[in-house]
Amino acid sequence: MRRLGAVQQKIPCVFLTEVKEEQSRKRDRQQFQVVATATVNPVALEANVDGALATEKLDGTCCYVTVYKGRPHLWARLDRKPNKQAEKRFKKHQHAPRGCDGFSWTVEEDFKAVPDTWIPAHRVQQRDGHPVPDRHGHIPGWVPLDEDNKQYCWHASVVDSEARLALVLRPGADDDDDDALEVAAVPLADLLEQTLELIGTNVNGNPYGLGSKKQPVHYLVSHGTVPIRDPPPADLRQLGSWFQESPEGRVEGVVWHCDDGTLVKVHRHHLGLRWPDGGTSLTDRPVVVRVDNISSISISSISISSSSISSMDLFTFFSALNGRRFSRLLDIK
């Protein structure tokens, strides 16, 4: 598979969208929702979306692997957002006839502070040495994983900081079963400059039903590595039918990776459909565990919750299951 585009910025919808003044199906406090029209986004047409690779859009939190202090390191997503006063001014400007055009930010004064280690995402524009907010008033960025920060405890659970390994869910190497997945301990160096999705028990309400409160289970999944077989074309009606009727359509959405590097997406909420809605395509796939020799690695135990889960637990858990095959990802408990 060719190297796919990393998710550094918000991905545009494959269709042109419009705003409806009604309760969002995606966010409880949002009193409007963004819905897709039948018109394909010119950005998608220009990038030849019909020839793009369609992959599953995963529902988790975005991560990034790049160098920190000279070594490969997992970074968590942290978008820099405006403070309350600046956000109020921005929203007032948004509702004016001219929309977002012409709004002026003073980044040093208008935005909340971020750690000194924060870096802006790729392709964030710079002006006078400062990053420029996007059209949503955010500055996408990253912070290196701090294992002592409980905010990132579930990120820490999928990384062995000493051996520089990550617990990754990916398509299996079994030629006899194209549908199979595998759980593997992958060197962080092999994931450099990739973005990944952290999914699992304590992320985004766990739409996949992974693990349990007693034994939380989390995985990293590199973006673009879960292709959709026989995807429908970028057509509003056909996509709506596919989401509702096809077993393959039990996904949060689709991300198209175009040959020129352009990414476009659609998710169920764009079509007014629920998510999650019953079982998911991902968790019904068979999976093989390939996590070997973890017991021989020296890993420092890091407390990450009140139940004293350590960073070693998931690696030890899967090492004990090495070679096991499960008929469904959901069966790993």
UniProtKB/TrEMBL annotation:
Is-annotated flag, keyword Phosphoprotein? no
Per its record, what are the GO molecular function terms? Answer: ATP binding; RNA ligase (ATP) activity
Q: Which cofactor does it need?
A: Mn(2+); Mg(2+)
Report the leader peptide range: none
EC? 6.5.1.3
The biological processes this protein is annotated with in GO are: response to reactive oxygen species; RNA repair
Do the record's keywords include Ligase? yes
User: Could you tell me which Pfam families the record lists for this protein?
Assistant: RLIG1
The UniProt catalytic activity note for this protein reads: ATP + (ribonucleotide)n-3'-hydroxyl + 5'-phospho-(ribonucleotide)m = (ribonucleotide)n+m + AMP + diphosphate
Question: Mind listing the UniProt keywords for this protein, alphabetically?
Answer: ATP-binding, Ligase, Nucleotide-binding, RNA repair
Instruction: State what this protein does.
Output: Functions as an RNA ligase, in vitro. The ligation reaction entails three nucleotidyl transfer steps. In the first step, the RNA ligase reacts with ATP in the absence of nucleic acid to form a covalent ligase-AMP intermediate and release pyrophosphate. In step 2, the ligase-AMP binds to the nucleic acid and transfers the adenylate to the 5'-PO4 terminus to form an adenylylated intermediate. In step 3, the RNA ligase directs the attack of the 3'-OH on the 5'-phosphoanhydride linkage, resulting in a repaired 3'-5' phosphodiester and release of AMP.
- Name it: RNA ligase 1
The protein's organism comes out as Cyclopterus lumpus (Lumpsucker)
Tell me the name of the encoding gene: rlig1
